[in-house]
Amino acid sequence: MKIKLTQENERALRAFLEGCEDAEQLSAREYVVDLYDIPRPVSLDLVFVKGGVAVDGAAVLEYDETLKGWYMGERLERPEEVLGALTACGALGDEAEADPS
User: Domain-by-domain residue ranges, the chain?
Assistant: First the structure.
């Protein structure tokens, strides 16, 4: 799936990912990030493409009290869910104008 971003949103997202301790840059364009501090924590694999980001993978993160650790739960299939997570953590800047497509 792809999420269209304005240039401002793309700059804000890159800055967020570069400063996030739970993000890892895999290549010049690809990042994986775990967003724990939002109401519904998620793990994302994002690739910057022309005009936005391609979401190569997205899943809800679930916490297991017994094991005291996180694991991947259900997959996120809708761009709106990914966009909501990015907006909830402030990754798209103050004025999120992204368009799920």
Answer: 2-94
